[in-house]
Description:
alpha+beta; NADH Oxidase; 11% strand
Amino acid sequence: MEKTVTEAIQYRRSVRVYKDDVALDDEKIRQCVLNASLAPNSSNLQLWEFYHITNDVKLVELSKACFDQPASKTAKQLVVVVTRKDLWKKRAKANLDFIQDSFANKTLDQYTQRDKFALNYYKKLIPTLYTDFLGLFGGIKYCFFQIVGLFRPIYRQVRNSDMRIVAHKSAALAAQNFMISMAAIGYDTCPMEGSDTLRIKKVLGLPRGAEINMVIACGVRDEQGIYGPRFRVPFEEVYRKV
């Protein structure tokens, strides 16, 4: 029986050694990746891609790129979460087309303020945030927004480096969706940041604008796969009710 959300969260551990004699169901993992794609993300741009690795040759190559750490070397499959900030124009247009299709039965004079805001969001605001040239435009935007921010609340993360962080935060939310979904069906994972990301991009044939968010090892936990009891700092140290 599939676990509840709380049960899945409590079950999930970073498993570093997997059973060699237990195969994974490709379709079940594909469904977990589909769940990942439903994660909340900045402006619904969905600046991500998910590479589900089942090919034995690719698994060996990617394990080497992950320094052959136990999690990658014993994984039955891998899922690579990739950020694609470079696709912002394509994804913004997809959102805009979707919105315009939903307005198909309306004339321009029937558009509400909310309708107009949605259209302008993807026509004007997103290009303003994501357009840059060698970091120069980002610096100009940053200075302008800081000055405006002296007089009213305003979004300040407008540089190219800021937008990269936004893409990676969204991808991390998707990765967590994936790992909780895997835990819910009794599969185990280990998110790995320790890797040669350039080699991973070459193995997957990724373009220059793509970035590796994380590589997730997948399998069924071996008895030695969890290295120790779970440790968390006292909850009172991190919880603040305001």
